[in-house]
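Sync notes, pocket subgroup
Present: LS, DG
LS reminded everyone that the earlier model was apo-only. Rerun requested with flavin mononucleotide included. Inputs:
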Amino acid sequence: MVHWPDNMVTYYGSEKILFSNDAFGQHIASAERFDDQLPLDIILEEAQKYYANIVLPYGKQVQMALEVASELDIEVIAPSHGLIWRTHIPEIIDRYNGWSKNKTEEKAVVVYDSMWGSTAELAETIEKTFTSAGINAKKINLEKTHISDVMTDLLTARYIAVGSSTLNNNMLPSVSGFLTYMRGLAPENRLGLAFGSYGWSGESVVQIMDVLTDCGFKLLPEIKVQYRPSDKMLENAAEDLKESLEQNLSEDEKEKEKAQKYRCETCGYIYNPEKGDPEGDIKPGTSFEDLPDDWVCPICGASKDLFLAVD
Ligand SMILES: Cc1cc2nc3c(=O)[nH]c(=O)nc-3n(C[C@H](O)[C@H](O)[C@H](O)COP(=O)(O)O)c2cc1C
């Protein structure tokens, strides 16, 4: 079940070939058959597109399949679509590991559609604001880009900004089509941002927020303007986004600190906040910072100041 229930992965031991079915595939039609016969960046980009559009909802199953595959001696991976891997197996396994864990980069996709350019102006401002905050950003107009290509970019993007103006009390059909497609592919661990221009009732932004929330994304405050945004409105939108990005970064830091493990430099014991220290009456979920000052290492009795953060 790495894609459909009837998909089987077969290992042919005497030739060390993994017939991997949908896993590790690409939608490439070429006269070449092997991964060392075309530029690697093209094959990996195609593998990313295939994963984002076909395999993404099955990350947990991919993880299980990777675990099984790690026990096998594999010299060739022959998927049912695309080129056969014989040289770059470590590279594609590494990508699958990241993708299937929903690992993302500090990268934003700003996806939008616009009738007369007002939402497009917001998209431009949002793209620039992400970039100036040090977040790699890409603006994508749904009129010109197929939703399957949006998914390729979105696969590794932590921030997903979606914009639409309001048309007859709704978002634009292209945006709603994209959101339906994206929701079905179930990307996880993202930050969403809804934006758009409107005339009087302005339902589009609320509807986008509803879908992003339904996807389980944490939301940044929405950006909404009436009709054509003035320079001042764009400036304010940029300022608000900059602030919410900064606030989010500091919340992220706090979250990281809460989950940070610490090692006792005396005996090597590792304090894991997820587990706590039940024998010392420390509940699971207690960060190292929140441990009482008189807490000591349960193994060797060393004090808190003899612990160092684990990388
Ligand atoms: C056919 C049509 C229907 C519209 N319906 C609504 C509506 O129901 N509610 C609303 O707030 N604005 C509505 N608008 C106004 C647009 O949302 C507004 O002009 C917006 O600035 C357009 O932004 P855009 O250039 O990004 O498409 C409508 C505009 C058109 C042309």
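DG: The chain has eight helices and 14 strands.
LS: The CA atoms of residues 133 and 242 lie 7 Å apart.
Action: DG to write up.
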